[in-house]
Amino acid sequence: GLCFFPIIESEATPMRTARIRHLGQFHKGKLEKTGKIFKFAFKKPVEALAEGQSLVIYKNSELVGGGEIRF
Fold first, then answer.
1. Counting C-beta atoms within 10 Å of the first and last residue's C-beta, which end of the chain has fewer, N or C?
2. Taking a C-beta distance cutoff of 8 angstroms, is the pair 43, 30 a contact?
3. pTM
C-alpha cells in the first residue's frame, strides 16, 4: 500500500484523482484512512512508482492533500 499524509482533507473519501509527477497523468483511485494513516489505492496499475515520490490528491480540480509514497 501507499501511505498518504493529508494536508487539507481529514476524512477518507471514496474516489479521487491523483498525480505522481509534476505534469504527470491523473490516475483515479480510492483514498482510505486506517487510524492516522491514509492509503491511496489506484484503480489501475501505475508504472514506475518509487518510494519517496510525492503523491498529490485532487477532488475535481481542487487540491485536497498530498504526501510521500511509502511501500
1. C
2. yes
3. 0.75
d(CA 12, CA 44): 19
39: which residues sit within 8 A by CB, 6+ positions away?
1, 2, 3, 4, 31, 32, 33
Tens digits of residue pLDDT in 27-52: 999 888 888 788 888 999 998 889 99
* Degrees to nearest 5, angle at CA 18 with 30 and 3: 65
End-to-end CA distance of the chain: 6
Residue 19 near residue 25 (C-beta atoms within 8 A)? yes
Residues paired with residue 40 on neighbouring β-strands, in sequence order = 31
The tally of CA atoms less than 13 A away on the side-chain side of residue 4 is: 32
Q: Identify the band that residue 7 occupies on the pLDDT scale cut at 50, 70 and 90.
A: very low
